[in-house]
Known about the structure:
Chain A is mostly helical.
Amino acid sequence: xxxxxxxxxxxxPPPRQAPPPPPDTPGRPPRRRRSAAGGAVPWGLLAPCLxxxxxxxxxxxxxxxxxxFQKFGQSxxxxxxxxxxxxFDNFATVLGDSEFWVVVVRTIVFAGGSVLFTMVIGMLIALxxxxxxxxxxxxxxxxxxxxxxxxxxxATTVFKWLFDSDYGVFNALLSKLPGVDVxxxxxxxxxxxxxxxxxLLVVWGAVPFVVITLGAGLTQVPKEMEEAxxxxxxxxWGVFRYVTLPILKPIIVMLxxxxxxxxxxxxxxxxxxxxxxxxxxxxxxxxxxxxxxxVVNDYGQGSAIALVTVLLLLGVVAVYMRQMLKIxxxx
Amino acid sequence: MTTTAAxxxxxxxxxxxxxxxxxxxxxxxGWNVLGLLVFLVVGFPVYWMLNTAVKPAKDAIDPDPSxxxxxxxxxxxxxxLDIADFWGPVGRSLVVSLTVVLIGIAVGMLAALxxxxxxxxxxxxxxxxxxxxQMIPLVAMIIPVFLLLNDLGQYDRLSxxxxxxxxxxxxxxxxTLRGFIVNxxxxxxxxxxxxxxxxxxxxxRVVFPLLAPGLVATSVYGFIQAWNEYLYALMLMSQQKxxxxxxxxxxxxxxxxxxxxxxxxxxxxxxxxxxxxxxVQRKMAAGLTAGAVKx
Lengths: 331, 295
């Protein structure tokens, strides 16, 4: 408070606090009392949202857990038989199945590869965009936003066409290279090759977001710091490693965790690419869980697999949340 | 340290200022070539979709396809509309997406206000929960959601699909709107209240107009997400009531896949969405990682 206020006679209220809030004015609690006044208003505002979320998200989540401890098949679905509690049987069956572990490893390799390529290629393109002329930058940005905005299903059908064994343009172009002949090659005859194509599709769809976010981050790197590092004798790599990277680290952590979560949850790409029936060699955790539930009609086991997937992701989610807390998004 | 590095720089300076040295110009040209290459590779799938959609169907099944357009025809689009009902699925997708967005925005805005403008016990828990539920993969939830709708008699109903789409649209809306509200200075509201506005009045007259662009962006983005959803649409609706994404994914006839009409269908699905996306992309990208650099 200024000195003038202290000399004002005590009877005159300091101007800044005037007019005093009439006690009966509704909906205008003074700031200080806001937290003390309790949470009637905010909880009221939250109520519809929480209600909807509890019904459409909370209940299914609980059901997912209970289902994974039940024997639940066709007859339980139609209500002919009550669901029977079987304890950890579903988990024992799933975890004891060697195919499950193959699927887990395949999913981790697939998601890991996708994330790695997405981040590295995204970073390279973001750095490249800083060095090109304005018109090239505009062209690349147009292509990036167009591929980013493409619905996943559209992108998947387009890639299916690009990699068609007989008339796909990819085989035609690749065969033009000297010494390469892939005319009529079916990329989906083998799991690893087919998953590589699907990985390409996932990376193609994910790179734009990474490039544009990292690009925004790169503009925040102070030019003076790069200059100073260069004066100190750092090469291009040194500047990147010791100046750019540490400043971008929060963004990179966030993008990486988000990518892991998204790429572990890849479903339509695999499902549609394999015409709704992914072969054993193409199964990832999501399609495997779907298969167990809706093809084999064992909803209990399907739920157990889905639950294991969520648990696997929890660690990554924890890192993401920590980062969000650190940067003060969740004040 | 400046002294050791100064001599070479001092010699470099005069030449850098008036014109770009040849070496630097050549480096720039090299980067540009690389940039154009990135443009071609990234843009190619989109180009090929458009190219196939407008070329005569017989040119599409050429084992050695011409990279440039071979002709301009709308016959693929006509064929795509013939193969299966197109407007039915599109109409259903529109109804579902618009309803979900309307509910999401109305319910989500209240929740966003609560967590961004009020301090109350449990606020942090609510925020963390809303963030966390966005991290659950949709696929993991399909089994219980399917059973839930089955129990409620909402299987194969648009209302059931709308209900399930709220699982991802609502948390997203709350979180994004929160980001937009936080960026509106609280002082503006307080000034309005000092001038005699009620709390609600201050919101309607001050916050809401400033929030409007954010509301539009969030709605459009939410609409795109709902429109693009595939798995729930596939699992919870029968063949007769399929939505647009399922329509495209099922694009096969008994003669096999007809790729040229399929690309025409893909174009019809993609172009409006990409245009919508272009309109809001800048605003959303800022929102998704807002504040990430500050730390």
